[in-house]
Amino acid sequence: MRTVLSIAGSDCSGGAGIQADLKTIAAHRLYGMSVITALTAQNTLGVQRVLPIGADFVTAQLDSIFTDIYPDSVKIGMIPDLSVAQAIVTCLRHFEAKNIVIDPVMASSSGQILSRTDSLQFLLQHLFPLARLITPNLPEMEILCGFPIVNQKAMVQGAQSLFSVLHVPILVKGGHLAQDEAADLLYDGYEFHWFSHARLQNPNTHGTGCTLSSAIACNLANGLSLKDSVARAKEYVTSAIAAGLRLGHGCGPLNHMYKDMSH
Fold it and tell me: Which residues carry out catalysis?
């Protein structure tokens, strides 16, 4: 059985973070493992509190996994501070981790800051270059690129700009653009690939970014190409949103198990 490791924060309400990642991995019939970088008190209404996990314990979790069940791919989400980022980089290099997908979680969908920007330069110089793919949304792209991303032309410019620094493929998620279709852009340094679908009329999108990056990691673990991994992951996330799950009093989660419930 193929194995996928999620390095991310815990969402006690189950819609995002580690919980969303493990549900996504299970839905893809792969074996999921987790390294928790932070505990969060959050729900569909927002993030109430964040408690970072110490870097030494993050290292201990990584050592436990890599020395016993080596992952076929790694998804990285929330990194709460510089010391945890340093611990992750050290371990990933030591164990020569492969198929790393990074979702640069810098703020929750409700606007709560989840990652301190003092670690940004370290991430750009040391962590992101280890990745097979990075999956920023538009607000995150603006932080990484330093200029506004207001349309698809700016998405192209942002992808080129970030690739020139990292030399790593970028998937720019265009869901924040106010238009009738949701369009994501994959740039691998050679070609641009657009993945578009009609915007779904469902406000329950909590954990979409976590789910997408985990699904991509699953597909890479199965040996698919980067383009096919993204295409299938997009189909999975779109269907999980379209399933129309309604939980909570705010921005609710996706239905990660929509396939099992459709039989």
Answer: 173, 205, 207-210
